[in-house]
Amino acid sequence: MKLPGPDHPITITANPKRVRVLADGVVVADTTHALTLKEASYPAVQYVPREDANMALLARTERTTHCPYKGDANYFSINANGKSIENSIWTYETPFPAMAEIAGHLAFYPDKVTIEEVA
């Protein structure tokens, strides 16, 4: 486990905008409670609370990955309009203590879904 610091900063802030996630035109998530995670020089990621996602459209996959800062990630595919978008969501179900805020949240690959932020 590594801690964020000056060499690898990570910040988590409440996103004041409404965040909608669509897969093939189907709304997968719609929230006013997203968290914006900014990590080092990577693009910002929106983490959406699970309760604001249509979990009926999601199917857990066997994929897992490890981040030395956040912990172990699990993945979901989205089933929308008869199509499966494989491993399009990741989640840290038991993140390391420094990243505890993102527990219970889902993050979406922006190249696999449409993520809209509206005021």
From TrEMBL:
Pfam families from the UniProt entry: NTP_transf_9 (PF04248)
InterPro entries in UniProt: DUF427, DUF427_sf
Domain DUF427: 19-111
Protein name: DUF427 domain-containing protein
